[in-house]
Amino acid sequence: MNSFGRNFRITSFGESHGAVVGVIIDGCPAGMKLTVQDIQPLLDRRRPGTSPLTSSRNEMDRVEMLSGIFEGQTTGAPIALIVRNENQNSKDYEELREKFRPGHADFTYQEKYGIRDHRGGGRSSGRETIGRVAAGAVALKYLSEYGITVTGKILLVHGKTNPEEIEREISSAKEAGDSVGGIVEIIAAGCPPGLGDPVFGKLDALIAGAMMGIGAVKGVEIGDGFAVSGKFGSENNDPMNKDGFLSNHAGGILGGISSGQDIVVRIAVKPTPSIAKVQQTRDIHGNVVEISVGGRHDPCIVPRIVPVAEAMLALVLMDCMLEQVKYR
Amino acid sequence: MNSFGRNFRITSFGESHGAVVGVIIDGCPAGMKLTVQDIQPLLDRRRPGTSPLTSSRNEMDRVEMLSGIFEGQTTGAPIALIVRNENQNSKDYEELREKFRPGHADFTYQEKYGIRDHRGGGRSSGRETIGRVAAGAVALKYLSEYGITVTGKILLVHGKTNPEEIEREISSAKEAGDSVGGIVEIIAAGCPPGLGDPVFGKLDALIAGAMMGIGAVKGVEIGDGFAVSGKFGSENNDPMNKDGFLSNHAGGILGGISSGQDIVVRIAVKPTPSIAKVQQTRDIHGNVVEISVGGRHDPCIVPRIVPVAEAMLALVLMDCMLEQVKYR
Amino acid sequence: MNSFGRNFRITSFGESHGAVVGVIIDGCPAGMKLTVQDIQPLLDRRRPGTSPLTSSRNEMDRVEMLSGIFEGQTTGAPIALIVRNENQNSKDYEELREKFRPGHADFTYQEKYGIRDHRGGGRSSGRETIGRVAAGAVALKYLSEYGITVTGKILLVHGKTNPEEIEREISSAKEAGDSVGGIVEIIAAGCPPGLGDPVFGKLDALIAGAMMGIGAVKGVEIGDGFAVSGKFGSENNDPMNKDGFLSNHAGGILGGISSGQDIVVRIAVKPTPSIAKVQQTRDIHGNVVEISVGGRHDPCIVPRIVPVAEAMLALVLMDCMLEQVKYR
Amino acid sequence: MNSFGRNFRITSFGESHGAVVGVIIDGCPAGMKLTVQDIQPLLDRRRPGTSPLTSSRNEMDRVEMLSGIFEGQTTGAPIALIVRNENQNSKDYEELREKFRPGHADFTYQEKYGIRDHRGGGRSSGRETIGRVAAGAVALKYLSEYGITVTGKILLVHGKTNPEEIEREISSAKEAGDSVGGIVEIIAAGCPPGLGDPVFGKLDALIAGAMMGIGAVKGVEIGDGFAVSGKFGSENNDPMNKDGFLSNHAGGILGGISSGQDIVVRIAVKPTPSIAKVQQTRDIHGNVVEISVGGRHDPCIVPRIVPVAEAMLALVLMDCMLEQVKYR
Questions:
Q1: Which of B103, B238, C304, D164 could serve as a FRET partner for B227 with CA atoms 20 to 30 Å apart?
Q2: What's the confidence (pLDDT) of residue B122?
Q3: Distance from CA of C22 to the nearest CA of A (A)
């Protein structure tokens, strides 16, 4: 399904090479001031063409608000946001009509649906995230009014943590017709305690689902994450004094519910599967073929994942804020 | 919310020290043979008292089927499964009425609800997983009829991978009044391609949410997981020939949809927060106090998480199997 | 699906001749005092054996609370309520294993599931409503704290509106081995304006779905209902002055949202399909057969529908109250 | 919420005087041929300006498909359909900024949201149904491939059943600055047995909710509907022989599940609340004022409700068809 959230529910639509990509937001509280200027900056951080290290496609990705706003304020009605697709070159993709790109959804979509829009990945394209980012920007606006901020950053690319080394790794991967992966950390500060539900609606469960739902993400951890596997309980528990917690190994969530501390999330991003290097694959007829994925692809998707991850975390928190208020 | 799944929808209920813990399964196809013998073995693997290294509480955890079965078969009606609580000693927990245990949900529940069943963690107790395991056993029965198996194992405890060393780590933690964490790997074999949905309903997103919804889990990864952050695209992509994939870095999922390969999931389990070692915390009045968590606690919850993680993966797959069939 | 509601979500389970019938309530706010005495009276109004005009089955229908309550208050955890089935005589129903009762779900369940619990209708039995009534009683308790009341009454039975005539109609139908239908009106007073959502979540849409989901209900109307088909707009619109509305043709709902006036609902209840009179039907082998439905059936289900309809209206209002609060 | 359906899930958006009205369809099976020509005819039946008896607004209501289609076929991705608003005159509505129109959602929206798009009713406008009708047309296309048809007709307007008398009633209401109500009947033929679920997901419950969710509908009945209140069980039960049912008092649904007979639904439609006749109301400041609702309004909305009701019934059936297949 293409919807996410219970209370601040978004529905994503559109394909890479269709007319538009967009999102419907259902459940945004009425009376919030909202203009495209609240949304465009996050989209601008997501779009390609802003650095020599990202794709050279020059997409302006201008958001339009089609509904749900009256005289500059939300009305409680669904908010439709779209970005028109431009500068898409379908011919770049003709070879992909029959060949399955390694590491892509081509094979699995074909198996599931028996039909597949091969142009730029269609629905599995990174452009689909435009809707999420636009909706996330609306959530961030609302959260900021409650003093909540969400900030992501690159922790590591291809094993390197230093910005200069990261740049060098990406450049050399690009030259080699290859790509590299990395790790992003996202922190939400200012959250009230009480967000999230016990059992299946745990805040960390919602976050994990949201993050792993971003294409290219292969791992999610909260607080100390995988490092807990090497620790004693006495090291990992966060003691309290009368002012609160003395450490934050838990990453701001206890028993699935926010504690009021920073919420700390890390995600592992795989190397972009679209690479110029020749790879072996098969076509829809079962023949073994070679493929060199042309087009203008990011040698490292990590920088552009940052705003998407911020958006997804904002959407989860927004949803929990609205849930929370029900029981006050 | 206490429900999980869209098509094979389970609702969990009950507290550690209440009358029962249980689950309602809604959406189980009619006409499947089902008896308590299909369910009890997985519950037996979850229950404590089976090894010197787990809690010494001796809970029999006998499952009862209250509805949804007629003459040994499912009817399509909701299946209610309960386990009566026995051998619970509420007095063990009297100290916890006012003190917040470090690493537990005590503080966050109190903040969220303003009321809290302090006895054994109430709803946040590990006993809540009994419902999930019982429902997972029903899913496993169904999946097995389609040739799908789900198998979990301990990969690592407190940095050790060798079974004997693991046993030693747990024993020494127990003696020290402490606890240790670890990593569990769960593999589903025999899945057809096509399970999962693009975008928010990605199979890996559902799995990540399901796994992170198990108490004590702090990280989830699929396939190569966090290791992708150090790899080239040309290493990480799985090439194909006419018989299928030549490697499985992806962990059986591409674009959120199963590829037919093994689905490979790993989860990080934190050290049990209940430890005898004295820790600093606060009470509900804001006073700083010391706490030594008594009772009969597992020094390492990793072994008992294995069947819970198997159950959760089975529930996700079951749900996707029923979803899948709509588009055939 | 066997769940109802978004925020105060109930899941019904159990069959007429199984071990129990029951309900799980998920989403009840924490901190509300709740005992079985809050629930039993509404169940008592629903149960048979209380009048010579209802079924002579003597079911005590004692409710038990299995979870979600701690020291007399709700904790925010799921509340499990069950009633054990007693005084059920499965042998009464042996003939129905193969014959489809006219007016019953026997044929359609068989077609849908290929298997059917024929004993007393199994899941389609009126006993299934016990869960709804128990959950409705919890909702009524909450609503009463906000000054909202829900009251049902019989408007008409077999064309008669006078209580004495109604009694006579039912008695004579019973003697004739037949049954009669009627109309029930349910009024909710004290509702705040603003309950319900535009478009698909209209309060009247939710009510209509809830009421038509009661077995035997064949029609639902709000306010003037079907009578609007003979009216002018100038008659049907409710004018306002500064104190509010001057009439209530709308039945308390405008544009799907409560106006603060009384919410007025009427439902049409069909004659009980189980009658002693001989009817023609077919069996599962396709043979034409005669059937006289024995057992102890109500010659008129209308009186026992009243508390069920009250419960369903209360559940809808409760759900909207919790939704409402999200946007305040 | 602005979504409807579980499996064929539609999300409606847009206001009367905004840029567009539209719908997202999520869950349409892949591989179905679909063009705007499959959708436009049902929209044309809904639009005004086609008869002297409907509103003289001349809206062309041209549907555009923005996503979900590839080379003329559905791909399984969300289908976005929009109609651009034209010929809307916002100035017609300036008086309504402060006055509450009797019989409209103006007062209740103001109470619920504290803000209200007064232009043409904004979200509560009849134009919102364009999205439902467009989605319904897609459902009808799918259903027709399974031999299912859905047909609506006017049964009665202002007490008259004869077409000529109906025309006269509408004309004279129009001249008097007034409006009239009526009854519509919708029949679905060719449905397989087994659609719908026991308990809360009964087919008739879904239909009742769908129909009552159409603005102006105040009553819904299935089969014999309210007439069952005057009948004996022996009259109302539908006997069977080996070929099926001998009558259809039930309206094609037994125990909430389709029987394979025609599904028969009737709805009561209130007189259009927008009338030129002077009425008393209040404004947002609490002053009593008079109002004459200008603009170009339908003196009887009954004819234009017919395609909307067909669409809603089609959406319910479509949803149940996709649900059904899970249990085969």
A1: B103
A2: 86
A3: 21
C49-to-A38, B311, C46, C298 alpha-carbon distances in Å: 65, 45, 10, 10
Contacts with C328 from chain D: Cβ below 8 Å: none
- Mutation pick from A24, A63, A83 vs chain D, by most beta carbons of D within 10 Å, is A24
Q: Across residues A35-48, what is the average pLDDT?
A: 95
Average pLDDT over residues B37-48: 94
Q: From B321, which residue of chain D is nearest by alpha-carbon distance?
A: D326
Are C159 and C173 in contact, with CB atoms under 8 Å apart? no
* A84 vs D contacts (CB less than 8 Å): none
Chain D contacts of B195, Cβ < 8 Å?
A: none
Convert the pLDDT of each residue in B211-267 to its tens digit: 999 999 999 999 999 999 999 999 999 999 989 999 999 999 999 999 999 999 999
- Name the CATH superfamily housing domain C3-327: Chorismate synthase AroC (3.60.150.10)
Instruction: Say yes or no to pLDDT of D91 above 90.
Output: no
Closest-CA distance of chain C to residue B151, Å: 30
Which residues on neighbouring strands pair with residue A232, listed in sequence order?
B180
Residue B102, SS3? coil
Give the three-class secondary structure for D212. Answer: helix
Amino acid (1-letter code) at residue A58? N
CA proximity to C45, closest of C148, C216, C184, C179:
C184
Cβ-Cβ pairs closer than 8 A, A with C, add up to 23
Return the number of other C-beta atoms located less than 10 Å from residue A66's C-beta.
Answer: 23
Q: What is A166-224 written as a DSSP string?
A: HHHHHHHHHHTT--B-EEEEEEEESPPTT-S-SGGG-HHHHHHHHHHTSTTEEEEEETT
Note the pLDDT of residue C170. Answer: 97
pLDDT band at residue C168 under the 50/70/90 scheme: very high
**Virtual torsion, Cα B165, B166, B171, B173, nearest 10 deg:** 110
Q: Do B11 and C3 touch (CB under 8 A)?
A: yes
pLDDT band of C158, cuts 50, 70, 90: very high
How big is chain D, counted in residues?
A: 328
D contacts of A76 (beta carbons < 8 Å): 112-113, 115
Q: State chain A's mean pLDDT as an integer.
A: 94
Chain A nearest C-alpha distance from D226 (Å):
35
Residue A295, token pair as written in the block: 């087009």
Residues of C whose CB is below 8 A from A29: 326-327
Total CB pairs under 8 A between chain B and D: 25
Neighbouring subunits of D (3+ Cβ pairs under 8 A): A, B, C
Residues C210, C213, C219, CA angle at the centre, nearest 5°? 90
